[in-house]
Design brief:
Shape: globular
Helix content: 25-40%
Largest sheet: 5 strands, parallel
Distance between the termini: 14 Å
Structural class: alpha/beta
Number of strands: 19
Radius of gyration: 22 Å
Low-confidence stretches: 43-49, 406-410, 426-432
């Protein structure tokens, strides 16, 4: 398939991708294409319950306070300039979303209702339908994209980035009928989300397989902070997958965490990494696989949290009388493709925004409800930079770790860390191309990543995880002809990179906990660990 190159090709249909697509087409008249491996509404954004954190009312809140809370949660690795962009520009992006038709909860006076969540010093989080914020944002953006985008490619899988003369010029795609074709664009925006499906227990949908980061790694694009995987402390302990999320807002309204003996053991409003570590430690001490969230004291639960109430009814639970079984679940990848403050990556023509990106905002641990905000803020900046003719990344934000050269405080040991060679072309894997074989391989990789590279890690467990990833990759050729095989290939690629990064970081910080290096080491590791592996031939144009 050959067509005139698009001005902007957006990969992914979450808040970052759709925000960019709408602005580029509606405000700047760009010819925009959106490609997603599912349907437009099937993105992690729709699963987001917590809300959007932004300073929308007057004192006692301020953007300085939001900045301070974000920096504190990030455990010394946030880029302060990126966080300043987030908190200063965030309110404007929220109001634009409201103008598109998103309907957030309001109080009896018609003012936006604000909630407090873990790590926030004051209430500043807006919600929709109590805990259906992501679904409402997604609805408003999908409607707008249908009105404005020139080309929509649904149920289409992005296989590789096309690179010509050091610049990204499009992608190779797998069509719904199994055929392959190239889609050319002057600019490509990675907005493919995270990689929760690396783990056996996750709040992320089945589509969250790290495709964008894996493609970037194969193209030699700089990636950082992927050792920091945030596990949400209150996923419902239930056989369904993804695990239903019991929003941070429940604890913000007074729900309590209790151990197997019914005792409180942690401050419920600490940042997520601290609560998750406390839970994991208590579960190991007591030999149990779940703990309890006590929401029996919350009033008007059905009215405040109708989405959660429906999930609980489906599980046979009544929050008015039942303690709710909970356990940590993989939730958010704090790192990704390194960008500058305009979303430009280390490869010309390639941009990134949202969970797939490492903008420098989250550092070692994301502050609750900053994720949707990040997607909206940096997607806006990507489009504006393209409109203004920007062609390559600058040494701003997280990108300083790549472009400042030797001696930069943002890079481990003053230079990018080269990931070991990772060969995914390991022989014939015809037998695993059957769906059942792929499912078994994926399940094994997820279980082993949970055991070896989950909430608590060691050097030996991470080395074992890298071997598991290599074995999984060796079972699937890069010529695999189905989306399921391509997803497994991407999961294996990212599992290897994530485990390697966690192995190199010999300390505990934020969402990364090494049992063999339990202390934070600012002298050696208050810096960004950059991976920039050799370019594969898969992405050659």
């Amino acid at each position: 398939m050959t067509t005139e190159p698009l001005d902007l090709l957006v990969l992914g249909s979450g808040v970052a991708g759709l925000s960019a697509a709408v602005r580029a087409a509606e405000i700047h008249g760009m010819r925009v294409g959106v490609l997603t491996k599912g349907e437009l509404h099937q993105a992690t954004t729709r699963w987001a319950q917590g809300g959007v954190a932004a300073v929308l009312h007057d004192d006692p809140d301020s953007t300085d306070l939001h900045l301070a809370d974000t920096l504190a949660a990030g455990a010394g690795l946030c880029d302060a300039d990126a966080v300043r962009v987030l908190v200063d520009e965030g309110p404007g992006r929220v109001h634009e979303l409201i103008a598109l038709g998103a309907m957030f909860d309001r109080d009896e006076h018609g003012r936006l209702a604000l909630a407090r969540e873990g790590g926030h010093s004051v209430p500043r989080v807006v919600h929709a339908g109590g805990a259906a914020t992501g679904a409402e944002i997604e609805r408003a953006l999908v409607d707008a994209v249908h009105r404005t985008a020139a080309v929509l490619h649904e149920n289409t899988f992005a296989l590789e980035l096309l690179v010509d003369d050091g610049r990204c010029v499009g992608i190779e795609a797998l069509a719904p009928d199994g055929g392959r074709y190239q889609l050319r664009a002057n600019n490509v925006l990675l907005a493919t989300g995270g990689a929760g499906q690396l783990f056996a227990v996750t709040t992320n949908p089945l589509e969250a397989t790290g495709d964008g980061i894996a493609m970037a790694l194969r193209a030699g694009v700089a990636v950082a902070d992927i050792e920091f995987v945030q596990f949400h402390p209150t996923a419902l302990h239930h056989p369904s997958m993804p695990r239903p999320l019991l929003s941070e807002a429940l604890r913000g309204h007074g729900a309590l965490l209790r151990d197997a003996n019914g005792e409180r053991f942690v401050d419920e409003l600490l940042p997520r990494d601290e609560v998750t570590r406390a839970e994991t430690t208590r579960m190991l001490e007591q030999g149990v696989d779940h703990l309890w969230l006590d929401a029996t004291g919350l009033e008007n639960f059905e009215l405040r949290f109708p989405t959660i109430a429906a999930d609980l009814r489906a599980a046979g639970l009544d929050p008015a009388r039942d303690w709710l079984p909970i356990a940590p679940a993989a939730h958010y990848l704090c790192g990704g493709v390194i960008t500058d403050l305009d979303g430009a990556s280390s490869l010309g023509g390639l941009w990134a925004a949202g969970e797939v990106a490492c903008s420098g905002v989250h550092g070692a641990n994301r502050l609750a409800s900053n994720s949707l905000l990040e997607g909206m803020v940096f997607a806006f900046r990507v489009v504006e930079a393209i409109e203004q003719g920007k062609v390559e990344a600058e040494a701003t934000g997280a990108m300083r770790a790549v472009l400042d050269g030797d001696g930069s405080p943002g890079v481990i040991r003053g230079r990018p860390v080269d990931e070991p060679s990772f060969d995914v072309d390991g022989g014939d894997a015809t037998e695993v191309f059957e769906p059942a074989g792929l499912t078994r391989l994926r399940d094994r990789l997820q279980r082993r990543m949970t055991e070896l590279a989950g909430v608590i890690r060691t050097g030996s467990s991470l080395q074992a995880a890298m071997k598991e990833a290599t074995a999984a990759a060796g079972a699937v050729s890069r010529r695999a002809g189905s989306p399921a095989a391509a997803e497994l290939r991407n999961l294996a690629r990212l599992a290897h990179a994530m485990s390697f990064a966690a192995l190199v970081r010999e300390e505990s910080r934020g969402a990364h906990t090494r049992q063999d290096f339990p202390e934070r080491d600012d002298q050696r590791f208050r810096s960004r660990l950059v991976l920039r592996p050799p370019v594969s031939q898969a992405g050659a144009a």
